[in-house]
Amino acid sequence: EIVKLFVFTRSYLLGRYLSLTCTVPLKPTSQIRTLYQPPVGLQNNLFHLPTSYYTSHQIRYLSCSTKMPGKRKSNDGENAGSTPASQTKKNKTDTEWKDIDFTSEAKDKSGSKWNLKISSWNVDGVRACVKKGGAAFVEHESPDVICLQETKVTEKQIPAELKMDEYPHQYWLAAKKDGYSGVALLSKEKPITVEYGFNDSEHDDEGRLITAEYPTFYLVTTYVPNAGRKLVTLDKRMDWDPKFRKHLQELDAKKPVIVCGDLNVAHKEIDLKNPKTNTKNAGFTKEERDGFSTLLEAGFTDVYRHFYPEEKDKYTFWTYMMNCRAKNVGWRLDYMLASNRLVDKVADCIHRTDVLGSDHCPITLLLTKPN
Description:
Layout: E1 2-11, E2 16-25, H1 29-35, E3 46-49, E4 62-65, H2 85-88, E5 116-122, H3 126-131, H4 135-141, E6 145-149, E7 169-173, E8 183-187, E9 193-196, H5 201-204, E10 209-214, E11 217-223, H6 234-252, E12 257-262, H7 286-297, E13 300-302, H8 303-307, H9 324-327, E14 334-339, E15 346-351, E16 363-367
Parallel strand pairs: 5-6, 11-12
Antiparallel strand pairs: 1-2, 3-4, 5-16, 6-8, 7-8, 9-10, 10-11, 12-14, 13-14, 15-16
Helix pairs in contact: 6-7
């Protein structure tokens, strides 16, 4: 026998109340507490299942503590049948390449058409992303440089699909911890120099930063530390911010700098769907937002907001849970930054929101090459 339990609980992720029906085996009340497993996706709060009477047995009262899970794998099953196919399309992994226009006639401030394209993508595990067709993005976008974050591979584990002749110059930085973090830079042109990290063992061991020097600019790709659930690693993040800023300022003193990657912060309220309910959550704390503001004040521009200062509902990350991508309940965590003196050379910054395969979408910068 089974019993259906109606659950009514607050989701801080979505900023609203949710209701759902759970099914558990009918056992004596003393056993149900241990057998009942709350559904994935509920926040870490106490909820109560009211008195229910469905069979000859009566369940008087239950209480269960739920815990917000980390990232779910993108191949986890969706709630089949609960949402029309038209809404769930963006939560699937097959990109409709024919529906995406990768061309652009954008021009910089002087009226010159762009001639340099840089793309960035948090792939949430490059092997999983490639299995979902992610390598095709590189072929369709064909950037001069493609930067990847959260690759989660060593050099021996790099998928063959990414060992492309068009990108003979590849630089992969893995974390010491297996299957964690990691960044990569794939380039058509050979950089003058490439450096890994910024001489800080704690952060460098996590594979978070690659700096490539080109003739007229530096390109930095990064996967910034997350402050963590319940902000358990906020101190690490606060240690990272000034060191990262110092690194960029030192580069900027020599040549203009372009920064791309997952910066793990939604800077303004416009940069996430539910700001009011996330002020104490990783990615939207005052400390993280102030740190990003300080970085911009050091001589850098958030290029997307430079072009689209008032555009709402423009995100680059959506959790796999609760069909958030289909509903566009997201965060803008991925950025292109440029030295202020380089902004006039930028033609556009594009979010490729229709490209699937990760819980983040790629972003692309179009610009004219600096002199």
